[in-house]
Design a protein that fits this description.
With 388 residues, the chain is of the alpha/beta class. It has two domains: 11-293, Rossmann fold (3-Layer(aba) Sandwich), CATH 3.40.50; 315-387, 2-Layer Sandwich (Alpha-Beta Plaits), CATH 3.30.70.20. Helix content is 30%, strand content 23%. Strands 1, 2, 3, 4, 7, 8, 9, 10, 11 and 12 form a ten-stranded mixed beta sheet that branches. It has a two-stranded antiparallel ribbon with strand order 5-6. The longest helix is centred in the N-terminal third of the chain and has 13 residues, at 23-35.
Length: 388
C-alpha cells in the first residue's frame, strides 16, 4: 500500500495510544498502528527475510529507556510471522565499537532482546560482522558509507527507533536510527567529517538516500528526555507511531513533545531535499488526535548544540558557546569506553582516569552518549548559557 502521495507531497503517520509495555497493551497497539497504514501484509510477503533494526545503543536494562523495548520487538516479530515473513533482529551497536561479537551479544542479553528472540525462535544478526561500501551519487555531502552488508541484503528493512533527546542533534528518532547501519568505528569517522549539528544532520539525510526502511515503527511508550540518548530520564509518552516516511514520523513525534519539527536539522534538510515530509500541515495523522497526545514540559538536553547551525565557525567561537564534556570522577568505572570511541583523540588516560583535551574535542558527545555509568556531563560555558 502506498501511503505517501508524491505528487501532492503528503505523508501518512499512524499514532496509537499505548500506556504500558504489557503484552495486552503492546500487541493490539502495534497491530492497530500497522492496520491504519495498510497492515503488515502490505510490507511483508510470505518468505521475505525481514530485518527488525532496533536501537541497541548500550546494554542498559529496558527500564532505563535507552534501547528499543524488547516487548516492541516481540510484537513486531509476531506481526512479521503473521504475514509469512522470517523475522531477524539486529543493530550495529555503538557500545560494541569495532566488531566485537562478545560485547554485542552481552548487550543483547542485558537489554532483554536476547531473551525475547530466544523465546520467539528469532535469529539475532551481528550487523557489524561484515561491511560493504555503499554509494549515493546524489548525496549533498556524503556520497558513500560503510554499511552493514546484512542491512543492504535483507528483503525488507523495518526500523524500530526509540523516541529520545540527543546532545548533538537534539532529537533522535526514525532518521537517526539509520546511523546504526554504519558499521563499527566508521561511525567515529562520520563524526570527524561532520562536526556540527547541521553537517551531521546532512550526513543522516544523505544516508537516508541509501538506507530507506520499508516501514518505521517508533517505541514512544516511554521515551527519554533531558540528557539523552543514554543518560537522560525516562518519560511516559504513551504512544506507538508508524509510517513509511521516517521524516514525517519524526515530525509528528517532535510535535507531540512540543518541538517545531524544523528545529531538528535532519527533518528540515530531508524535507527540503525531497526525502520525506517534515511540514506537519502536510502529514495525515491517523488514529489519535495529535492534540490529545501532547506532552508538556518535555526536557531538552542541558548542553544541546542544536541551535548552533552555522557552518565553518571558528573553533574558538565554538569553544565559547558549545557544551564541553566533563568527567565526574566519583561515577567513573574506568571502563575506557569513552577513550575507545572518541573520534578525535581528545581523550586519554591521566592519573588512571579519562582526561579531556578540549582543544581536540569536536563536541560530538560520543563519550557522554556511550558512558554506561553516566560519568560524563555536558557543561555549557557562561557565554553559551548567555546566548542561549
Amino acid at each position: 500500500m502506498e501511503n505517501q502521495n508524491e505528487s501532492s507531497n503528503i505523508s501518512t503517520v499512524s499514532l496509537v495510544k499505548c500506556q504500558t509495555y504489557d503484552n495486552s497493551n503492546i500487541e493490539p497497539a502495534i497491530e492497530k498502528a500497522l492496520k491504519l497504514i495498510g497492515g503488515i501484509e502490505s510490507y511483508v510477503k510470505p518468505g521475505d527475510h525481514v530485518l527488525l533494526k532496533i536501537n541497541l545503543l548500550t546494554g542498559d536494562v529496558p527500564e532505563k529507556a535507552v534501547t528499543t523495548h524488547p516487548e516492541i520487538v516481540r510484537a513486531m516479530i509476531h506481526q512479521v510471522k503473521a504475514a509469512g515473513g522470517i523475522p531477524q533482529v539486529g543493530d550495529c551497536s555503538g557500545y560494541e565499537g569495532a566488531a566485537n561479537r562478545k560485547k554485542y551479544f552481552a548487550a543483547c542479553r542485558s537489554s532483554g532482546i536476547q531473551q525475547v528472540c530466544d523465546e520467539e525462535g528469532t535469529e539475532i544478526l551481528h550487523l557489524n560482522a561484515e561491511s560493504i561500501d555503499a554509494k549515493n551519487a546524489s548525496g549533498r555531502m556524503f556520497k558513500s558509507f560503510i554499511l552493514s552488508k546484512q542491512v543492504l541484503q535483507t528483503d525488507v528493512l523495518i526500523s524500530l527507533p526509540k523516541l529520545k533527546t540527543h546532545g548533538l542533534t537534539l532529537f533522535t528518532g526514525g532518521v537517526k536510527n539509520n546511523f546504526g547501519c554504519v558499521t563499527g568505528l566508521n561511525k567515529a569517522k562520520m563524526h570527524l567529517r561532520a562536526q556540527d549539528p547541521e553537517s551531521f544532520s546532512q550526513m543522516l539525510v544523505d544516508l537516508l538516500g541509501i538506507v530507506r526502511p520499508a516501514l518505521t515503527v517508533m517505541d514512544a511508550v516511554i521515551g527519554m528526555e533531558g540528557n539523552g540518548p543514554s543518560n537522560g530520564t525516562p518519560r511516559k509518552v504513551n504512544a506507538i507511531l508508524a509510517s513509511i516516511d521516517p521524516v514525517a514520523l519524526d515530525a509528528v513525534a517532535c510535535t507531540m513533545i512540543g518541538l517545531d519539527p524544523f528545529i531538528i536539522p535532519s527533518t528540515r534538510l530531508a524535507h527540503e531535499q525531497g526525502l520525506g515530509v517534515g511540514d506537519i500541515s502536510r502529514i495525515h495523522v491517523l488514529g489519535e488526535d495529535i492534540k490529545d497526545m501532547q506532552i508538556e514540559n518535555f526536557k531538552l538536553p542541558s548542553g544541546t548544540a542544536s541551535f548552533f547551525r552555522a557552518r565553518g565557525l571558528m573553533r574558538f567561537v565554538r569553544s565559547m558557546l558549545l557544551a564541553k564534556p566533563e568527567l565526574v570522577k566519583e561515577r567513573c568505572k574506568k571502563c575506557w569506553i569513552c577513550i575507545e570511541h572518541c573520534p578525535s583523540g581528545a581523550l586519554s588516560k591521566e592519573e588512571d582516569y579519562p582526561f579531556f583535551d578540549h582543544k581536540k574535542c569536536i563536541r560530538c558527545y560520543c563519550c557522554q552518549e556511550l558512558c554506561p555509568s553516566n560519568a560524563i556531563e555536558l557543561k555549557t560555558p557562561f557565554l553559551g548559557r548567555f546566548v542561549k
